[in-house]
Amino acid sequence: MSDTSFSNRLINIVIKSLSALFIGTIIALVGHVFIGYETFGFVFVTMSIAGLCLKFYSKSKILTVLVFNAIFILLLLVLRLYILVAPKI
Predict the structure, then answer these.
(1) What is the pLDDT of residues 65-87, one digit of tens each?
(2) For the whole model, what pTM was predicted?
(3) Is 36 helix (H, G, I), strand (E, B) or coil?
């Protein structure tokens, strides 16, 4: 086994893990604001969503992960715009 294949796999795993934790944390923050659960619930939702993302990413290439992250960030920006522009009820 060559060093380049090991380093490529390691970088792939690190990027997928950080991406999954990022998405899990964002979804947990949104749920925390809407539902108001405590620390255990926050950590549980973060790890559950991260696990689901890692399951989804298992067969994906790094480019697919980066495109998915870009789409997710754009959706978050649309949600933020909706929250800022929506009238206060």
Answers:
(1) 999 999 999 998 998 888 888 77
(2) 0.80
(3) coil
